Amino acid sequence: MNDPVQKVLTLCFLLLLISCTTEKKESTPTDENGYVILSDAQVENIVKRSYQYVALYNVNNKFALKQGGWNTLQADTELKDHTMREIARPNNDTFYVSALLDLRAEPMILDLPAFGSQYVSLMVTAYDHYVGVPKTTGHGDFGKPEKILFYADRTYGYHGEPVNGVDIIYKTTGDFVSAVLRVMPHANDPERFKSIVDKIKSVQIQTLSEFRGEEPKPPLDITFPDVGKTDLDIFENNLLEVMQFVFNHISFDTNDEMDQQVLEAYKPLGIVPGGKYDPDKGKIDGKRFRTKAEMVQKEYLGKLSDPNLMTEMAPKMFKLKGLTDLETLLTVSIIGPIGLPMEEAMYPNVTSTDGKPLNALNDYVIKLSKDELPPDQAFWSLTLYDKANGFFIPNDHKKYSVGLNAGYKLNKDGGIEIYVAEKKPAGASEENWLPIVRKDEDIDLILRVYVPDLEKIKSWKAPKAQKL
């Protein structure tokens, strides 16, 4: 072995042997179609651990496409109607001011006015669907103008240092973030409504460079995977491409069990943070994944009918990382992604008195005495949707909810009767009528209780709909 040539040849042989052994060890078994071999349990695990990311990727990127891209701001100044299709179970009792932020090149700053509304909150989420609420009227915020700066782990050249003139610095869990203001516009008070709309129009976003009077840094090039018409489309058509993109643009915590479990689930498919999607590697049977996702979706939509389960989940809904669990994240991602935690809003489901699914073949009434009204500290609303898609039901009256903003009328005793019916029942007020189209279609009724009294709500029961 003293011959230098022999040493080199021996070393090359050893390196080749190690390389072959490593490749064999890391190769993933595939079937005759080239799909990675996965058990049903593995597929279900991947689907369940992916839903929070798929739902938020689909929602946030649809909004980005609609409002002209990232680092843009779109503000509602009119109430939503049945043409709203970007998100399941939207609401029209608050206006949304949606800032979609790409935080890779530099931080972004949101300029907030004092709104003069009974309820305002700022909700922040990245593709991981963990929700932060850095500002809310429930904590006495929005009484004065403020500026809030957003940045992420991968924001170039910025690490959270103070900025003169900025009131709040907020670190997000991902590079692509939706920062959404919800503002109750007081639509039944024209003068107040106009004032709030003017304040909404004054909201602005700018880069840190622009805030300092400098030229903004050029945006970084990027190609986004396609969104799906529904989340199921992504599970079928481009799940791995989307998840690789998501993995590259959110922050994982080595101490967070759920983070580590989703990373472990995707290892056999070659999807890892910092990786590059290769359509020729780690292929999956998209139809199989869609079928499994449909089964999971059906199962978790069924949980809406279990008020005890929803009550149990409520404290864990729409929380920061570490304050929720997979079952809760999966449920809210399927029912309707991006919402507020229970301190800000609760979403009780109204079921039927006979225990059967609500259906548009029937008319219903929901009766509440004064003492049975939702225990809110801001306001409440009841909204009607089709169950399959979670969209408003089209009607000529453009009436989709009952409440302080959309309109309601209490009876002489301080209670209320709300009707879900094809035609307005005799004696019912226009404000308390939710129109339906007579057909065989399951429907959902969801209450929103803003800033609930958490003590009173422990003993409060959601109302039930009685078939007429």
Structure overview:
The protein has 468 residues and is α+β, with helices and mostly antiparallel strands. The chain folds into two domains: 309 residues, no CATH class; 120 residues, Domain of unknown function DUF1214, C-terminal domain (Jelly Rolls, Sandwich). It is 27% helix and 21% strand. The strands form three sheets. Strands 10, 11, 12, 13, 14, 15, 16, 17 and 18 form a nine-stranded mixed β-sheet that branches. The protein has a five-stranded antiparallel β-sheet with strand order 1-2-8-4-5, with helices on both faces. A hairpin with a 5-residue loop joins β4 and β5. α2 crosses α8, α2 packs across α10 and α5 packs antiparallel against α8. The longest helix is centred in the N-terminal third of the chain and has 28 residues. It starts with a helix and ends with a strand.
